[in-house]
Amino acid sequence: MKMVYNWINIIQDYLLPPTCILCGNPGHDSRDICHSCYTKLPRNNHCCYQCAEILEISTADPAQSCWTIPAQHPSGASRAKPLPAVLCGRCLSRQPAFDETVAPFIHQGAIRHLISTLKFGANYKNARLLGMLLADHLTNLSGTDLHLPEGCRAGKTDMQQTADRPDLILPVPLHKARYRQRGFNQAIEIARIVGRELQIPLDLTSCKRNRDTPHQTQLPAKKRRKNLKNAFSIVKPIHAQHIAILDDVMTTGSTAHELAYALKKAGASRVDVWVCARA
């Protein structure tokens, strides 16, 4: 059934013009979203450089809740267009294993709907749109509409610069029991689109999820960390030094932390996180 559905999507891509998934109007710029709906998407405009946590903007001294760091790549290479980077208090007090996070949208409104109906409704067309939006954000292919506001890492880097290009994309794996239940991994479906658009290979075999952790949505951060402890294993050598973990949404960052920890333990020197949205 899944294969048949994918073939239907492929045929529709060639025979039917893009249509906005959200309102049904004609799509814009070869995307399944119209310009009006696109401009209303909830953007993560001000966030932590490392975990993309949404930061409140106020007239108070920002040093009280976050810290501005030099606009320099973690590897030491300067960015083409230096912008201030900000760390949240949580990342300052409890350093995550991953180096930085790209999260262009906030997990609410239309973005939440797209992710939810993909994950629980098997709407594969949503994966294509989400993947294209994420890839567009990374490459700035759509010009100023997808520019990065100051203070947020998401969308800032031009992926045409080899210094910022990961060697591979690793979608967050599902446990085999969860995969059988759902029938697909939404992170893989989104990653296929991002990898194709950015011409970066995917790795679907080097990492496995050791146990079927319970749904984390309603759990506090401390409980999530406990549930996810040693949840991932690297089952074959990974020779890539720079890896991008890809998932649909980041809530506390516990999943990304555990996976990044396993990857660095296996030899990776830098691990970024790419997600469509930050909760």
TrEMBL record:
InterPro entries reported for this sequence: ComF/GntX_DNA_util-trans (IPR051910), DZR_2 (IPR044005), PRTase-like (IPR029057), PRTase_dom (IPR000836)
Annotated Gene3D superfamilies: 3.40.50.2020
Short name of any one Pfam family annotated for the protein: DZR_2
CDD domains cross-referenced by the UniProt entry: PRTases_typeI (cd06223)
Positions of the Double zinc ribbon domain: 12-56
Family: Belongs to the ComF/GntX family.
Protein known as: ComF family protein
Species assigned in the record: Candidatus Methylobacter titanis
